[in-house]
Amino acid sequence: MANQVEHLLNDTQYELLQEETFMLLSTYSQENQSPMVNAISWVYAKDKHSLLFAVDNRSVIVRNINTSPNVVLTLIDAESTYSIKGKARILTERIGEIPLKLAKIEVDIEEVRDVMFYGAKISKGPDYDKTYDKQAAAKLDRQVMSALQK
Question: Is the pTM of this model over 0.70?
């Protein structure tokens, strides 16, 4: 179903984004006059019209959003690949209850586009493993996702 365009998340996308999910975030760097892509996982669908995510508050992502709020998040699920375009804004520079210095960012969704090339589907969504202390990673993931849901 390439090129299908919506203005909000569908039920499947919304459900997938109720827990930590691998996504690609594209921002624009005014400094370099070029797009930048980063992998993120602390993403939460607040509702079908908006996403919340957390990143290190010293990240170039925060600087880019402050100067150019247009972003695109890429979601790869078990069927297709979606481009989620929207306007981002920093809600807080530091999430208080998290030991890391994380910014909380909201994206108002303007467009959700199926960008999978014609005649294909994703047979398996992206999987990843945390490469540091698994218990510490799980604890931090719970803290961050809980903070995003508040």
Answer: yes
